[in-house]
Amino acid sequence: MLKRAVIVASLPLFASCAGLPPNTELVPYYQVETVKPYDEVLAELEVAIAEHNFRITGHSRVGKVIRDRGASGFPEYDTVQFCNLTLAKVVLEITPHAIGFMPCNVVTYQFDGKTRVKTHLLPEDTDNSALNAFAKEMNPQLRQIVDFAAQP
């Protein structure tokens, strides 16, 4: 069921990429949904980030701040930024343009009674073979972080 949701959620992304030339640095996304309580998703996200040897560098609780300003009932929206400076150094030595992918970022939000967990992946089909190789090692970790946070 989860794989089907990921595939269905990815179809608009694939359709929107159809007209792009190869070797662009398009940022793809990976997203899953869960019925797990929102606060548990955030807690598990923090655990998964630490287990992959990243450090949280920021956490924006956008939904909470909007509610605090008087919009009661506003849904949850959070962004969690994280980084590993050793990996950051490696990718920035590959290409300084990779700064646009940093820090790693996972968003969580409520939609249609479910919690969505989403992160951007690194492009794996650029004209920079070293960046492609780095991305192919990094993207599975990002997917694992998202999957761990969303698993029931």
From TrEMBL:
Classification via InterPro entries: DUF302, TT1751-like_sf
Leader peptide range in chain numbering: 1-15
Coiled coil: none
Domain of life: Bacteria
Keywords from the UniProt entry: Signal
Keyword Signal set for record: yes
Any Pfam family: DUF302
Domain DUF302: 72-119
Protein's name according to its UniProt entry: DUF302 domain-containing protein
Organism annotation: Methylomonas koyamae
